[in-house]
Design goal:
399 residues, alpha+beta, Glutaredoxin, 3 domains, four-stranded antiparallel sheet, 25% helix
Length: 399
């Protein structure tokens, strides 16, 4: 079975509308429950009054959230680094028996010693949320910050320990309501460009407002925004890094550095955009107009073009005629399997198929060029490294 795709999984579970307006906010005083059931602890309950750490970080998670689970070894190292000064506590509403079974079997958790609050209701009621990982930073019983899981780093812990005001941090607020009223303009056109909205979730929306069409994008960055727009009017391949061609002075405006948390990078580089257009415009005309307006505001030239890149080429191997006839094959379509392979291994180059892309093949668990070539050969396909012109998103700055 192919290696599991690691991604940030956003999980939603129902909340009453009334509950969405409740919950502690930044700066408010936290009153912990007397105790909470836990696993991986000296006793089956965690008595909160016994926790004397300067900083407590509640890490709300679920066993089905892969990114939450994969962060636990890193979080344990942070706990060991800071010792008694901090207390990192994973929290889940899931049943104790279910969590224990998972923790004992999973490679990321079976040696993890962080105490895990299970069957939680009290803490989640204090901090309602929809997506995990959801971090609540508590210092001296005050809510210091509410963030996404990627903010739990050594640098940010040091800042939290030394400061009582982290309002500049990116806020995770799953119930933030963006301005969606729209605007009616007499000439049928309106465009507005604003900065990052702290607390708002990433959002794309194309809808009708009266006799006009409105497009709104909240907390977005250029590359995914332009790809979203182009994909709404034409089919795009998997747009891997080889298909993104930048000619800009500062690439960190477009691509997240590996040494920075995504939340911080988004706060520094994301923006909000809204425009309103005549309802008489066709879909393709409308999208191209939005792309042109956005590119102009960002001082960019943006286009989809064929450009040369290093790729892996798959082709059918010609074979001699079989007088007995081909037997009916079972398996997965070649295109689907290779798409999953590309998703699971984003560091590898794009894969092109020269015909026969829906032929059924027998799949194998492979992770590199040699393994993929061997598996394809068994199915009568070849694999070679070459250079081809492929569809690419080209972005250049307007000087």
């Amino acid at each position: 079975m192919m290696k599991r795709f690691i991604s940030l999984v956003i999980l939603y579970f129902p909340l009453l509308l009334l509950g969405q307006t409740k919950g502690l906010k930044l700066g408010e005083t936290m009153t912990f429950p007397a105790m909470s059931p836990v696993i991986r602890n000296a006793s089956p309950t965690l008595v909160w009054d016994s926790v004397k750490s300067d900083l407590i970080v509640l890490d709300f998670l679920m066993t089905s959230c892969s990114s939450c689970i994969e962060a636990l070894p890193k979080n344990q190292k942070l706990q060991q680094l800071f010792g008694d000064r901090i207390k990192i506590v994973p929290v889940t509403f899931e049943r104790k028996e279910q969590v224990e079974r998972f923790w004992n079997k999973n490679d990321y958790t079976k040696s993890n010693t962080l105490p895990v609050v299970v069957e939680d209701r009290d803490l989640k009621n204090l901090f309602p949320h929809q997506g995990v990982s959801h971090l609540v930073w508590i210092k001296n019983n005050k809510v210091l910050a509410i963030t996404a899981g990627d903010m739990l780093t050594e640098k940010n812990i040091l800042q939290a320990l030394s400061s009582d005001d982290l309002k500049e941090w990116p806020i995770k607020d799953d119930f933030f309501v963006s301005d969606t009223t729209g605007k009616i303009m007499g000439d049928g056109f309106y465009s507005r460009f604003d900065g990052y909205v702290n607390g708002a979730k990433l959002q794309y929306a194309l809808d009708t407002v009266g006799e006009q069409v409105r497009f709104r994008a909240v907390n977005v960055t250029p590359i995914p925004l332009f790809l979203y727009l182009y994909a709404s009017i034409r089919e795009l391949p998997l747009m891997k890094k080889e298909r993104i061609k930048l000619a800009v002075t500062d690439s960190t405006r477009f691509i997240e550095p590996t040494d920075e948390s995504q939340s911080i990078w988004m706060k520094n580089n994301a923006f909000t955009y809204e425009s309103i257009w005549p309802i008489s415009m066709g879909k393709e005309e409308l999208i191209n107009a939005i792309i042109a307006d956005l590119a102009n505001r960002l001082r960019l030239n943006v286009s989809l073009v064929d450009l040369p890149a290093e790729v892996w080429q798959v082709a059918k191997i010609k074979k001699k005629k079989n007088n007995g006839g081909d037997t009916k094959k079972e398996g997965m379509p070649l295109k689907f399997w290779l798409t999953l392979f590309e998703i699971n291994y984003p560091q590898l180059p794009p894969i092109l198929i020269a015909g026969n892309e829906m032929e059924l093949i027998e799949t194998e668990n492979v992770s590199d060029f040699d393994g993929l070539r061997a598996a394809l050969k068994k199915n009568n396909f070849s694999l070679q490294k070459t250079t081809k012109s492929i569809l690419s998103l080209r972005i250049t700055e307007i000087r």
